[in-house]
């Protein structure tokens, strides 16, 4: 079973949601929380969330993706705790429920890895990341 499924749904889903609603809500959340570089974060965060979510879905670089998710969701938790205007959270609760669930699943991915169907496991040999050796053995 691929253990990254729940984390992928939260991360890729929030990335797409932020990109679609960024002009109105995402910028307002960043401004209210005093997060710098609004224009940069308006594009960078949703693209990163979606890309990391897709990597987690495939099970590629799962533990690195888990670290990225934890960093992003810590900032999201901060935003949820600092911003008091519920109008800035149209599709989610004002409490940091979703970021905390995403952090929990990312910690699980860090602990357990990508799972039995992950690309990480297919490319690993005795716990070491050796894709070239894997392909040499598969060919012969």
Summarize the structure.
This protein is mostly helical and 140 residues long. The chain has helices spanning 5-32, 38-58, 62-82, 97-112, 119-123, 131-139, and strands spanning 124-125, 128-129.
Topology:
Layout: H1 5-32, H2 38-58, H3 62-82, H4 97-112, H5 119-123, E1 124-125, E2 128-129, H6 131-139
Antiparallel strand pairs: 1-2
Approximately how much helix is present in the residues? over 70%
How many helices does DSSP assign?
6
Q: How many β-strand stretches?
A: 2
Distance between the termini: 28 Å
Measured by DSSP, the beta-strand proportion falls in under 5%
Total domain count: 1
Largest sheet: 2 strands, antiparallel
Order of helices and strands: HHHHHEEH
Structural class from helices and strands?
mainly alpha
Rg, please? 17 Å
Going across the biggest sheet, name each strand in turn.
Answer: 1-2
Give the low-pLDDT segments: none
Structural summary, described in words:
This protein has six helices and two strands, in the order H-H-H-H-H-E-E-H. By secondary structure, it is mainly alpha-helical. It has one domain. Strand 1 and strand 2 form a beta hairpin. Helix 1 packs antiparallel against helix 2 and helix 2 crosses helix 3. It starts with a helix and ends with a helix. The model has no long low-confidence stretch (mean pLDDT 75).
């Amino acid at each position: 079973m691929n253990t990254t499924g729940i984390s992928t749904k939260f991360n890729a889903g929030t990335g797409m949601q932020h990109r679609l609603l960024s002009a109105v809500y995402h910028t307002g959340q960043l401004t209210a929380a005093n997060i710098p570089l609004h224009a940069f974060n308006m594009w960078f965060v949703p693209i990163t969330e979606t890309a990391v979510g897709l990597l987690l879905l495939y099970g590629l670089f799962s533990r690195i993706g888990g670290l990225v998710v934890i960093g992003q969701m810590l900032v999201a938790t901060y935003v949820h705790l600092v911003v008091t205007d519920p109008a800035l959270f149209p599709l989610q609760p004002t409490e940091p429920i979703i970021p905390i669930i995403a952090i929990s699943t990312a910690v699980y991915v860090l602990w357990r890895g990508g799972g039995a169907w992950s690309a990480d496991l297919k490319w690993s040999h005795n716990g070491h990341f050796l894709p070239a050796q894997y392909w040499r053995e598969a060919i012969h």
